[in-house]
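Amino acids appear as letters; backbone shape is given numerically. Here is one record.
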Amino acid sequence: MIITLDSPAIIHLKKKDKRLAAVIDAIGEIECRGYPDAFSFIAKEIVEQMLSIKAADCIRNRIAAMTNGAFTPESLLRLTQDDLRSAGMSRNKAEYLLGFASAVAGGRLDLDSLPALPDEKIVKRLTSLRGIGTWTAKMYLIFVLQREDVLPYEDGAFMQSFRWLYGMRNPCRETVIRRCRKWKPYASVAARYMYRALDMGMTKNHIRITT
């Protein structure tokens, strides 16, 4: 999927938020690559929680070596908690990852049924499993299902860009929600531009807004 500058989402966001409009103009259109494998996406998100990119990549590579590159419920359930701990995972995370694999393999969580549900029900179902929080559920909504109106204020990368764009040192959740209300119903699209700004190093510079 490519978000073009003449799309309804971009037209709306630029009209409603002058600061975000400057970011969009600087970045241009962006390509959003989907993740067709929901299980491996969520499994890797469990691994990555609270880790640096380098550390997470290292652990994922070690697990992949144990499973011949497969991130499936069946391949992970062949491993023990000790196997996962030897790859660098904490005891709790190893338990969460195997619990998620068991829930999917045993049918307690039907990933194929989730796309038909509204965002709130998806979050509720995913977060009913230990080790899957709202952050992971929202990443799934944005990057797997490509839902358009998800505000990931739980995400550190998003918040880093938010603080930079609006010149706020430590905004509370209510402030973020209130400031981003103007993005509805395209909060996810706005968030993608915030992520891209961070990836491109724009947050190290100052954007001059002219109104």
